[in-house]
Hints:
The chain is of the alpha+beta class. The protein has helices spanning 3-13, 34-52, 73-77; strands at residues 18-23, 29-33. Strands 1-2 form a two-stranded antiparallel ribbon. 1% of the residues are buried.
Amino acid sequence: MSLGGVILGRLRRDPGRLVSRFVRTDGSEDAVTAGRLLARAGGFADALRGAALGGGGGLRPGSIVAVCLFPGLDLHAA
């Protein structure tokens, strides 16, 4: 099993588990659970899959893509 598969399995087993905490510039915190991280990652996967299946982006299954995001939940999920 790949490392990604092991991590995915752990996240799925306990979706309520706190996996990360982001501190905003104003000092407030954003707690991220495994379920929230998986849901956001699923959104990125769906968008990329859609682009690969005819979204006009020229992606094919197995394509390598670059992701450039600000630090936070989206960066970790992507």
